Amino acid sequence: MSASRLRGKPLLEINNLPIICHVFNKAKETGLEAIVATEDEEIKDTVLNNGGEAILTGNHKTGTDRIFEAFEKLKIADVEYIINLQGDEPMIDPKDVLNLNKLMVKNNTDIGTLASEINEEAILNNHNIVKVVTEKKLDYNNFSKAVNFSRKVISNNNIYHHIGIYCYSKDSLEKFVQLSQSKNEIENRLEQLRALDNNIDINVSLAKSSPIGVDTEEDYLALKKIMEYKN
User: Fold this and answer.
1) Chain-centre distance for alpha carbon 217
2) Which end of the chain, N or C, is less surrounded by CB atoms within 10 Å?
């Protein structure tokens, strides 16, 4: 609720449904177990009142630390991978989530994420949109390692629009949260840099869609227009 660029964004409504509930519904479409982890009673109550599942956590510096607390509290047995789908991605494609999960299992990977092609100069130069540079050019079958993440343009080759989702092996999630925040992570406000700074690989899968994340009021209004038009 306290996101600095758009306060209260999880409860902003599109088609009479809060953004966080749209994200939860997309997660449920994958067929995987989905639970909202939040530090805000208001978000938890909203999710529950709209037929979702939610768990209350303490205050954390990053979403990954919050996910780990929720995972421990839930005591779910026989889990190999945990997916952290950020709550501002209401247009995420469930098929892309499932493909990421499939590649994680197939390659026995520690951490994986999604990225999409950048087809507009405005996206490339927008500092609210995170970019990822990969070792190899992405296609729908490979799972290349990430070289860097940044809000600025950092390369002319193999640069993609990063999508707000991570898939962790259980062991890598436990390892990640025991690490201190790195200087690079704090300065850039990008938690994934904690992994790279500690030599933990993040592999990237190419998404077939390029969803708009909600970081600013402009993002919200643009997304609202698109989703209400589709409806």
Assistant:
1) 19
2) C
φ/ψ of residue 161, rounded to 5: -80, 115
Distance (Å, whole) CA 87 – CA 215: 11
Whole-angstrom distance, CA of residue 123 vs CA of residue 132: 12
Pairing of strands 81-85, 159-169: antiparallel
Region of residue 23 (left: phi > 0; alpha: psi -120 to 50; beta: else) = alpha
In this structure, what token pair is assigned to residue 180? 């201190």
pLDDT in tens, the chain (231 residues): 776 667 888 999 989 999 999 999 999 999 999 999 999 999 999 999 999 999 999 998 888 999 999 999 999 888 999 999 998 888 899 999 999 999 999 999 999 999 999 988 888 888 888 999 999 999 888 999 999 999 888 777 899 999 989 999 999 999 999 999 999 999 999 999 999 999 999 999 999 888 877 878 888 888 888 888 776
The answer to whether the CB of 118 falls within 8 A of the CB of 160 is: yes
> Exposed/middle/buried for 215, CB within 10 Å: 0-12, 13-18, 19+?
buried
For residue 33, what are the β-bridge partners?
none
Token pair 């990430």 is found at 146
What φ, ψ does residue 93 adopt, rounded to 5°?
-90, 120
Nearest to 146 by CA among 190, 193, 100, 107: 193
